[in-house]
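Work through what follows:
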Amino acid sequence: MSREAWIVVLVIAGIVLLATLVGVVVLAVRVVRTHRLLTSLGASGKLALYGALLYTIFPIDLLPDPIYLDDMGILAGTLFYLTRLVQKHRAAARQLPGQPYAPPGTGHDRRPVP
């Protein structure tokens, strides 16, 4: 390959690397913000949160550090799990004592139309 082709390949690789790094940072920030939504995480939520953040920061990964796809997968999975915990926490807080449990989305949490 010519010198110009190598330069193009390196520039594209740098852009991809920068984009994945930005993706990891954005996911990490969203995980921390989701953590702040909960008043009490419980053991599983804390383990998921701190485990994901340690995996992202720790230098030994499944894939080498210039490839952040595994870090992004771990953070996205943790974000999904913590979001589900937030939804369960909010649903439990809305439920009044003495009422049967109504899962979210069953129509029991809607206001009547006037």
In short: Residues 67-96 form one domain.
